[in-house]
Amino acid sequence: MWSDSASAAPLAFVRRSRAKAGSFRSGGPSGSEAEVPIGRTVDSPRRDAPVLLGKAEEFLRTSVRAEDAGDRDAAMLASIHAAITANDAVCVALLGKHSTDPDHQRAADLLETAGDRAPGAGQRAGQLRALLKKKNLVEYEARRATVAEARDALERATRFVSWARDVVGKASS
Questions:
Q1: What is the pTM of this model?
Q2: Is the CB of residue 163 less than 8 Å from the CB of residue 124?
Q3: From the centroid of its chain, how far is CA 28?
Q4: Which of 27, 36, 48, 153 could make an S-S bridge to 76, C-beta 3.0–4.6 Å?
Q5: pLDDT score of 21
Q6: Residue 14 CB-density burial (10 A; 0-12 exposed, 13-18 middle, 19+ buried)
Q7: What gap in Å lies between CA 95 and CA 91, rounded to an integer?
Q8: SS in 3 state form for the chain?
Q9: Are 150 and 67 in contact (CB under 8 A)?
Q10: Pairwise CA distance, residues 141 & 149, whole Å
């Protein structure tokens, strides 16, 4: 069994208005502010963002090779991991932290907190959520990914990583 000190990190919260965070479950009346859990996070130096982006690009290249070989499940999973890691790169570049929560949906929540610092962050968080919905299917269900699912995941991840490349590049300059 291995120790993960990041998993012991306290849960982080963000104060957001319901109008700006429709996907957050704050439970407050419309228009009110509430503390919204974004899960476990760990502080990371912003200089780590390009390293994380490089990992995302590696996962994306792996996905392309897997798709070319007809390995649909591997292509789909590598695509999902490319998007998760690209998301971490953006969050580190803009927020100085990334999600370590076992529920990867919290990573999308964290991205939404970047707000105006990353144009389109809310839309990209939605794209990440769409990919994450497929993660359990490809990893744990006794069903193979279809050609269309693998191709869709690769296309979505490619767009996400490209956006992350732009955001990290601008944040680093």
A1: 0.79
A2: yes
A3: 26
A4: 153
A5: 33
A6: middle
A7: 5
A8: CCCCHHHHCCEEEEEEECCCCCCCCCCCCCCCEEEEEEEEEEECCHHHHHHHHHHHHHHHHHHHHHHHCCCHHHHHHHHHHHHHHHHHHHHHHHHCEEECCCCCHHHHHHHHCCHHHCCCHHHHHHHHHHHHCCHHHHHHCCCCCCHHHHHHHHHHHHHHHHHHHHHHHHHHC
A9: yes
A10: 14
pLDDT class of 159 with cuts at 50, 70, 90:
very high
Torsion 52-100-93-77 (CA) sign? positive
164: amino acid identity, one letter: A
Q: In this structure, what token pair is assigned to residue 129?
A: 């959520």
- Order of strands across the sheet with 33-43? 11-17, 33-43, 97-99
The identity of residue 126, as a single letter, is: G
Helices 49-68 and 72-95: angle between axes, nearest 10 degrees: 170
* Residue appearing with tokens 């999600």: 99
| N-term to C-term CA, the chain | 41
The reported pLDDT for the residue numbered 36 is: 52
